[in-house]
Amino acid sequence: MMASFGNQSTNADWLDSLPLSGLGKVNEFAIKFANVNGTGSASANNLVLKAIFRMGVPVSGKNLFPSNIQGLPTWFEIRVSESGFTARSSSPDIVVAMNPQTYRDDIVSIKPGGALLYDSSWPLSSDFERSDVLNVGVPLSRLCSEKFPDPRQRVLLRNVSYVGAVSGLIDLDYQILSELLNETFHSNPKLQKSNQIALEIGYQYVKESYVTPLPIRLEVRDLNAGKILIDGNTAISLGCVYAGATVAAWYPITPATSVSENFESLCERLRTVELSNPDGTVSNVKNFAVLQAEDEMAALGMVIGASWAGARAFTSTSGPGISLMNELLGLGYYAEIPAVIFDIQRTGPSTGMPTRVQQSDILLSAYASHGDTKHILLFPGNPNECFQFAVKAFDLADHFQTPVIVLSDLDIGMNDWVADEFTWDANYEWDRGRILGQEELSKIAKFQRYSDQDEEYVTSRTLPGKDSKGAFFTRGSGHDQFGNYTESPEDYIKVMERLLNKHKASVNWIPEPIVRIRDKAAIGVITIGSCEPAVLEALDHFEKDGIEMDYLRIRGFPFHQSVKSFIEDHEQTLVVEQNRDAQLRSLLILELGIDPNLLMSVLSYGGFPLTSDDVLTRAKRILKGWDRCPR
Amino acid sequence: MPSIIKPSIPLIPLAKNDLGLTIRNYEGSMSTLCAGCGHDSITAAIIRSFFEMSLPPERIAKISGIGCSSKTPTYFVSGAHGFNSVHGRMPSIATGANAANRSSIYIGISGDGDSLSIGAGQLVHAIRRNVDMVYLIENNGVYGLTKGQFSATADVGSRAKKGKANKVTPIDPALLAISLGASFVARSFSGDKEQLVPILKAAISHRGFALIDVISPCVQFNNHNGSTKSYSYVREHELKDIETSYVGEFSEITADLTQGNLTSVTLHDGSEVVFRSLPAGYDSHSRESAIAYINGAVARNEIPTGLLFIDEQAPDMHQVLETTSEALVDLSYESLCPGGGQLEKFNQSFK
Ligand SMILES: Cc1ncc(C[n+]2csc(CCOP(=O)(O)OP(=O)(O)O)c2C)c(N)n1
Ligand code: SF4
Ligand SMILES: [Mg+2]
């Protein structure tokens, strides 16, 4: 069977006419799937992502989804990179155009020499024609309606058919796809069968109608040994389980919801204990409590209450929620109660763009609440750090008796990243900080909550319900070093100064920055969180152009002195971050006393995951204006 | 206002409870509230109830919001941990603490401003969760600590100290709680310790959320003629048809409580609430009955007090969550961490 080619006759012609950029792209390209949300495309697209991962090729998937349940445009972008550059790509080599609403823009976005896969059940309007792109028409709807009578099923299976077509076009391993479908539908043989048929239809069609594979294609490698494909939110929830957290309180909000939902389902599996009752029946009891709160104030209130009582407790939220939590963050800070808050940042201010990424809660989190406060912050940059920093956050919160905010973001939190397999140190012991039990209390004459500071300015606490000798009054109102109410300037200041020193002392426990030093580079680049892959790729481009730059990624606040020396060791430092107001730069200037002239901002904050092009174009523009730029 | 330590002047030897503690062991530091403030009488009733029930001080956890009323946890049981949190957020703090450690006895102290304005959202949801705690609203119809503004319980027509009448309809915390599904709802008067103490004891024994709305006059800002929360107005308008006695699990039932057709309810811990008097046809297990009774009284400008509603069988938060009977805070790290082998399995599932 020879297919109709839309506006193109054969792909042999196309091959001849190719601008060379499209040639020879083995394991180095990007595919964009343009879909309508609510049509089940996400699972089909994930199938492609996972199959590429299983082929042993580094890959990433970026889900660019709307804040909507059904009917709006949604995109899934897969970046394949044997050389390990898995930041979002700014333009795709292949577009799978499944959404007529966005055809025009999607087709325009294809790199010259790339390919378009579209549903040719209906002719493609000549308006959309691009002569420098291969048009691969596959009559997906027609093929599916011939095979599958049920209209709803047809919509879903059409997605699997385009996966089959992609498989045929770019050598995406058919066997792996087929296995993945069997794994997904292992409990439903009927669905298993129809999905396999759908996969095959698409595959067969392109095999029969086109010269395959295209020059943009995959080859099996073994680069994913010891790796997993995981999103940051799942990693955080695993971290919370491993940290021994027992209470979670949260209010639903994109992109943080999956942290607490995953935690609950993990605990349902791992922390539900069977008990046999005297009457012979068996009941399940749970070694955890997940509370879906009425709002974020209540969520943090519950966390503070649970931590005060002695549990490891956390909440997960995003911008609007962290705004609401401010008063209670001040309470936790001033009354010295541990709490762990995961802020999966999204685009603000206000509701902003709920399904888009930003790093714009940095300043708010550092100084959250009225009055003088400074919080401990952790900035994970990938799923491995999400897992590790989740555990660390509980240790820090307990050790320093204070709220700890982990600032992840939507890109890390909700997208799948290739990560190292998680490992667990069997010798890990949780750090519950200075808690006096009955035995310790029996050795002291009188317990006073805020007076026995150690070299880190931490005082000992006691837990309610244990011993009346340890009883004290926790309050967010003015208190002296004994915990008594006070309105005396001296007593108030004494406590406030200790809190400031305690925050400073915590720096020794904050993860050191990630640093990469080139020989005698004049320019340094500082970044944070999910920016890393795009920044490293941009630095690679600069190096190819002969400009070497040193690199530093900050992983926590308070900042290490090494950050200050890094800045001072360079003539100029670029600070790359995803917000409008250069929040990280401001915090560096404020907290490290940096000369503002040393720091230039590279800002990208439109809400899509950062690309190396975003960094390159902005960095070049800035460096052009800097007279000392090498070149 | 520094906190004031009470002088311990031994007078006649004080009576001891089952734990060998005297009433002094249930006191706190000296109150700094205005002389005659209703809240201080409530504190006294709490002290007496805890003492008579022989509650171990270390098992008590006192939590409050912000307001004159919320200051009072410092004034009772100094041997118990206390938490004076932020305005309107006591319910969430108590909910979290209870989730973490279900073996403590939680008493939450709040005001009408703290609970029914800024904290209304949290109160409502603590009721819905049926958190096992005693929840006291020390209700004076005004914001005492911020100097006398009307609160959400001020009656229409009730006059402020400077003469202005309230025009906004009030929230009746008892009606609110009953209609939200609360499992224990009572109203009392700070000036009536004989009524309040047995209600408090029953509330402590009750498993679940026990709301007590205690009318507690503010002598400073709301005790004048024209106020419906003054001592004299409440005394004149109180409707006290429901009267209860509390019989502890191991206490003997006195003769007056065994006669004839008195109804009683057995609480979770084996103690009993005996209804010494009830209006004809009143069913304390029926929300409709309680709501009709309260509405009828309010229409006659009366203030119905007593244990208005009880559902001693309602599952509390932990039963709903199916949490282990052990306090979560007492679980060892080993019992909580799934270990490296399990992590290896996770790795495989993300391939
Ligand atoms: C967020 C916030 N807003 C306002 C206040 C000021 N404030 C303190 S107490 C109070 C009202 C207390 O009224 P109520 O709960 O009825 O207690 P009372 O003093 O009458 O016993 C207010 C508004 C505050 N502490 N926090
Ligand atoms: S102002 Fe009113 S509520 Fe506050 S202490 Fe004085 S009398 Fe009591
Ligand atoms: Mg009040």
Would you write up a description of this structure?
The complex is a heterodimer of chains A (about 625) and B (about 350). Helix content of chain A is about 35%, strand content about 20%. Chain A is an alpha/beta fold and about 625 residues long. In chain A, helix 3 (about 105-110) links the parallel strand 4 (about 95) and strand 5 (about 115-120). Chain A is globular and about 90 Å long. Chain B has one domain (about 25-240, about 280-320): 3-Layer(aba) Sandwich (Rossmann fold), CATH 3.40.50.970. Chain B is built from twelve helices and 14 strands. In chain B, the strands form four sheets. Chain B has a seven-stranded mixed sheet with strand order 2-1-3-4-8-7-14, sandwiched between helices. Chain B starts with about 35 loop residues before the first helix and ends with a helix. Bound molecules: thiamine diphosphate (TPP), iron/sulfur cluster (SF4) and magnesium ion.
Write the layout of secondary structure elements.
The complex is a heterodimer of chains A (631) and B (351).
Chain A: H1 11-17, E1 28-36, H2 41-54, E2 59-64, E3 73-81, E4 94-97, H3 103-108, E5 115-119, E6 134-138, H4 140-147, H5 151-170, H6 174-184, H7 189-209, E7 227-231, H8 232-242, E8 247-250, H9 257-270, E9 272-276, E10 282-286, E11 289-292, H10 296-309, E12 313-317, H11 319-324, H12 326-335, E13 339-345, H13 362-366, E14 376-378, H14 383-400, E15 403-409, H15 410-414, E16 416-420, H16 438-442, E17 473-475, H17 489-505, E18 514-516, E19 523-528, H18 532-544, E20 549-554, E21 556-557, H19 561-568, E22 572-577, H20 583-592, E23 599-603, H21 612-624
Parallel strand pairs in A: 1-4, 4-5, 5-6, 8-11, 8-12, 12-13, 13-15, 14-15, 19-20, 19-22, 22-23
Antiparallel strand pairs in A: 1-3, 2-3, 7-16, 9-10, 14-21, 18-20
Helix pairs in contact in A: 2-5, 2-6, 4-5, 4-7, 5-7, 6-7, 8-9, 8-14, 10-12, 18-21
Chain B: H1 38-52, E1 60-64, H2 68-71, E2 81-84, H3 90-100, E3 105-111, H4 112-116, H5 120-129, E4 133-139, E5 142-143, E6 149-150, H6 173-180, E7 184-189, H7 193-205, E8 209-215, H8 231-237, E9 238-239, E10 243-247, E11 263-266, E12 272-277, H9 287-299, E13 303-304, E14 306-310, H10 317-321, H11 333-336, H12 339-349
Parallel strand pairs in B: 1-2, 1-3, 3-4, 4-8, 7-8, 9-13
Antiparallel strand pairs in B: 5-6, 7-14, 10-12, 11-12
Helix pairs in contact in B: 1-7, 3-5
The site of iron/sulfur cluster has 12 residues of chain B, from loops.
